[in-house]
Amino acid sequence: MKKSIVVPILKYHKIFLLFVSILLLVLCPLIEAAGTPVKYLPGFGALPFEFETGYVGVGESEEVQLFYYFFKSETNPEVDPLILWITGGPGCGALIAITTELGPVLLDAKVYDGSLPTLSLNPYSYTKVANIIFLDSPVGGGFSYATSQEANHSDNLQMALHTYQFVQKWLVDHREYMSNDFYVAGDSYSGISVPIITQVISDGNEAGNKPRINLKGYILGNAVTFRPAEQNYRIPHAHGLGLIPDELYKSLVSTCGGEYQYIDHTNTRCLQHVQTFNWLLSGIYFEHILEPICNPVSTKARHLSPQRRYLNQKLGQLKNPTLLTGVKCRDEWHLLSEIWVNDETVQEALHVRKGTHGIWKQCPNYEKMPFTRTINNTIPFHASLSEKGYRSLIYSGDCDLYVPFLSTQTWIRSLNYSIDTEWRPWFVDGQVAGYVTTYSNQMTFTTIKGAGHTAPEYKPAECLAMLKRWIYYEPL
Predict the structure, then answer these.
(1) Buried b (16+ CB within 10 A) or exposed e, 307-332
(2) Which of 13, 239, 273, 453 is flagged as catalytic?
(3) Fewer Cβ close by (within 10 Å): the C or N end of the chain?
(4) pLDDT tens-digit profile of 397-417?
(5) Residues 174, 334, 400, 407: which is the catalytic one?
């Protein structure tokens, strides 16, 4: 990353930290926030693991009610780490991560027959090695809600402050976890949210706020970090994956100079080559290039509006057994979560408050969601947290074109940390699972071979092995 981009943001970051320190002192008093056990889930049955849900009020008057799902570790909950998982988006419901990525139960796609979707145990759930809180954050995501119109608006800083206050209150009610190692984790857009949240928690600890959180570090997968760079790295990544020819790649490099998003309108040759690139990739599923795309007819495969229209149409078909043609792609499988979660018996089992939300969506309509993206580059937060000695695990599914691993490597390299362990393969069951580099600042970067944008969804065994080794301070 160019120094000219990072330095002004570092100056802004110092002002940001001062502002946060002041705000932390005026958070409302900590009141216990009790959860309710969940013993049974429709589509599955009696649960063989310990699970609770609940709301925690945050804000000066608890005008924001954040909904959470807590799963005890299936190994040793008294000593296993406590992980706070923030789903991407911003504002995607935590249940999409629980039921398609790393939770103890996953949606069944192959056996769906038009009735209530069913679930099965996930043998590679992250709860095998950790206690996990999945949080619907920011307000408006999942089942979290606000009691006033004004409180329904949020931004990156407000989300972080609310999340910090949530953690404090949750620990007051779950004191048995106060001494457990604590990590903040997430993937996709959480690459923006998680470093900010981690920084706010760290600042709270330094300010002497109680309870003190036993923060050890953070975990990020295919993390959005600095969007312009990530979009620019799609072209070299696509070339490396064999999706575009050498001739086009060389022409793009020579005419565009590495800038493929904000192109000078007079640079017609660059514009023409980018148009050719977009056409060649119009039938590619960017979140995993080897998977079928849900709407191959579209000439703009990653254009949200046509894609969402297609998915809404498909959701209607999935709800009607007479129109059912089968779940043929991953986005259709994800839509089963909307059918399952919006069933009244499911929401009753989860103890969702009636009348506090509309139809549950896996991810919100970002144009309508009252969330302001005030921070768009979290590289300075990584630098700050590393200087404070926090551990970090940064992983990338290498088949993801949405956030290419090349862009992640580049911002890590821009931090100028010395390398402890050079790029090497790591193994699961005797097979190469990816490639790992470790740095002197306690940062570990690894690829997940064959995984897409949400890596645990594609390579669950490898991701669980990665997490287990890392949280127990073992080499990958």
Answers:
(1) beebbeebeeebeeeeeeeebebbbb
(2) 453
(3) N
(4) 999 999 999 999 999 999 999
(5) 400
- Residue 298 known to be catalytic: no
| 193 part of the active site | no
Whether this prediction's pTM lies above 0.70 is answered by: yes
Domain ranges of the chain: 3-227+375-471
Report whether CATH 2.170.120.40 matches the domain 3-227+375-471: no
For the chain, helix, strand, coil in percent to 5 are: 40, 20, 40
Check residue 303 and give its pLDDT: 37
Give pLDDT, residue 347: 96
For residues 145 and 158, the answer to whether their CB atoms sit within 8 Å is no
Q: Confirm whether 400 is a catalytic residue.
A: yes
CA–CA dist 328, 214 (Å, integer): 44
Low-confidence ranges of the chain (pLDDT < 50): 1-12, 14-15, 18, 21-22, 24-28, 32, 296-311, 313-315, 317-325
295-300 long-range contacts (CB < 8 A, ≥24 apart) are none
* pLDDT value at residue 112: 66
- Give Cα 178 to chain centroid, integer Å: 24
Q: Which two tokens stand for residue 71?
A: 């799963």
Q: What dihedral do alpha carbons 84, 96, 189, 291 form, nearest 10°?
A: 130
